[in-house]
Amino acid sequence: MKRRGLRRELSRTALGLPGKWNGHGADVAEQAQAGDFAAINRYCEGDVLNTFVLYLRWAYFSTRMTATGHNATVQNLLDYLERERDERQHLGEFMDRWQASQQPCPLFVNEPIGEPGPQPPDTHLRSEDVLP
């Protein structure tokens, strides 16, 4: 069966997200047999974080969320990850990897300046910054 649409891992990479840095689904059965449920939990939480940020960007691009709402949600997520860093180190590692990404897609989106309509060219991500 041919896959349609953009694969999640490619989308994560384009947004500079860590992706599956802390495990893979193929490892879960073996980890469960070994009783390493903490590793499964870390893997699942990392996957959920990646998916949540993908959802935020989709919600923004599909006009289900404003730029202000998107940015506030990203900031809330970053604040949460920072608060949890000491107790759950993988959350801090996710944040560090995301913020250190060399991908051209910023964490926050530009908020419109003034009236609706065309914006100055420096208020959006240029296609030449993304395409090879």
TrEMBL record:
Originating species: Candidatus Contendobacter odensis Run_B_J11
Protein name as catalogued: Predicted 3'-5' exonuclease PolB-like domain-containing protein
Biased composition (Basic and acidic residues): 123-132
Predicted 3'-5' exonuclease PolB-like domain ranges (all copies): 13-98
Region called Disordered, residue ranges: 107-132
